[in-house]
């Protein structure tokens, strides 16, 4: 991967929508267990510091890859303004830090209700930023999914004023973060790792500034023994994989699809607890989960149907351009069309 174009082609070849979404889902389940161990049995009560450790470990891992020339090449600096990279890093720090803070001060149900609000926020933001519209069928499907998730998690609602303020403050950065990641990867030759390498130092800087404001005192007094440190490092490794898989998913799909996947994780974890571990969320929550799963399945069907229709329309034009133009020009047109298919 000696150029950003070849690195992007390799990522698109091996990490399509199905692979990237599955990867992100599997890692997300793993980090839930890891963070539960860190926040619960280990007793690490510093959510911003935990996010900072995650990004610091990610930076060390990527620096190691870069040392051995295994990090994908980034596009030329002139192709993407530094202001865009800086804004993405800043928004990412707010999104990650406030998410962990919200999870600490809110119940799981209230946290999931806040996540539901990210969906309409993305729709509105994409329309305002790029005039991107959502079809009526998809809008209705997203509403059904959100309703199902709300019903499934309504039994765990506990209101906390500070937690509610944190959750509301998190919604906009979370939506903008997903839109930025998806837009930069799909409009340029950025791979997930290359973009992470550029934005991670900026994210670390902003997390350092947020930590004294939002974390409780006592970080240095924490018992940094071998067991606790290993648990935090394992959580950080999962955090790196989660960030990488999420970036791959946003580059291969869209911000809305990534939000739907996040809601799918919630429903699957809840149903798994009911079917495997014998938990009893109640008939109302189960019905809500079933409705949400049905809506997610139909949303996926609409996405696949659109992709199939798009590829079917573009295939004849490629053949015509190939017949009408010399081989070199035809190859260039084909490459341009492949790029358009992924935008």
Structural commentary:
Residues 23-299 form the Sugar phosphate transporter domain. It holds the Pfam family TPT. It comes from Panicum virgatum (Blackwell switchgrass). One of its GO terms (cellular component) is membrane. Keywords: Membrane, Transmembrane, Transmembrane helix. The protein is mainly α and 343 residues long. It has 13 helices and no strands. Helix 4 (82-105) crosses helix 9.
Brief description of this entry?
The chain contains 13 helices and no strands. It has helices at residues 4-14, 17-39, 47-67, 82-105, 108-116, 118-130, 136-153, 161-187, 192-214, 226-252, 255-275, 283-324, 327-341.
Counted beta strands: 0
Query: How far is it from the N-terminal to the C-terminal residue, by CA?
Result: 21 Å
**How many individual helices?**
13
pLDDT < 50 stretches: 315-343
How much strand? under 5%
Tell me roughly what share of residues is in helical segments. Answer: over 70%
> Helix/strand/pairing class, anyone?
mainly alpha
**Residue-averaged pLDDT, rounded?**
76
Radius of gyration: 21 Å
Q: So what's the overall shape? A: globular
Subcellular location: Membrane
Keywords: Membrane, Transmembrane, Transmembrane helix
Region (Disordered): 308-343
Organism: Panicum virgatum
Give keywords.
343 residues, mainly alpha, 13 helices, 80% helix
What order do the helices and strands come in, and which of them pair?
Blueprint: H1 4-14, H2 17-39, H3 47-67, H4 82-105, H5 108-116, H6 118-130, H7 136-153, H8 161-187, H9 192-214, H10 226-252, H11 255-275, H12 283-324, H13 327-341
Helix pairs in contact: 2-10, 2-11, 3-4, 3-9, 3-10, 4-8, 4-9, 5-7, 5-8, 6-8, 6-11, 7-11, 7-12, 8-10, 11-12, 12-13
């Amino acid at each position: 991967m000696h150029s950003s174009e070849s690195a992007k082609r390799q990522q698109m070849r091996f990490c399509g929508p199905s692979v990237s979404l599955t990867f992100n889902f599997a890692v997300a389940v793993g980090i839930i267990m890891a963070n539960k161990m860190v926040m619960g049995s280990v007793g690490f009560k510093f959510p911003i510091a935990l996010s900072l450790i995650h990004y610091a470990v990610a930076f060390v891992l990527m620096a190691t890859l870069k040392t051995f020339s295994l990090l994908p090449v980034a596009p030329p600096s002139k192709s993407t303004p530094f202001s865009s990279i800086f804004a993405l890093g800043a928004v990412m720090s707010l999104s990650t830090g406030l998410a962990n803070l919200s999870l600490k001060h809110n119940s799981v149900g209230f946290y999931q209700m806040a996540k539901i609000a990210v969906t309409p926020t993305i729709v509105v933001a994409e329309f305002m930023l790029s005039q991107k519209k959502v079809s009526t069928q998809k809008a209705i499907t997203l509403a059904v999914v959100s309703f199902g998730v709300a019903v499934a998690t309504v039994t765990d609602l506990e209101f906390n004023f500070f937690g509610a303020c944190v959750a509301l403050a998190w919604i906009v950065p979370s939506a903008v973060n997903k839109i930025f990641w998806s837009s930069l990867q799909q409009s340029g030759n950025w791979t997930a790792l290359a973009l992470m390498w550029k934005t991670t130092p900026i994210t670390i800087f902003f997390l350092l500034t947020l930590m004294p404001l939002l974390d409780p005192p006592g970080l240095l007094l924490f018992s940094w023994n071998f067991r606790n440190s290993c648990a935090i490092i394992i959580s950080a490794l999962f955090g790196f994989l989660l960030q990488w898989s999420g970036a791959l998913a946003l580059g291969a799909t869209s911000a809305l699809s990534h939000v739907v996947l996040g809601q799918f994780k919630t429903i699957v974890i809840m149903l798994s607890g009911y079917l495997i571990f014998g938990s009893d969320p109640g008939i109302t929550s189960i019905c809500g989960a079933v409705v949400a799963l049905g809506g997610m399945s139909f949303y996926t069907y609409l996405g696949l149907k659109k992709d199939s229709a798009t590829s079917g329309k573009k295939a004849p034009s490629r053949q015509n351009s190939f017949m009408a133009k010399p081989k070199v020009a035809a190859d260039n047109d084909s490459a341009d069309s492949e790029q358009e298919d992924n935008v």
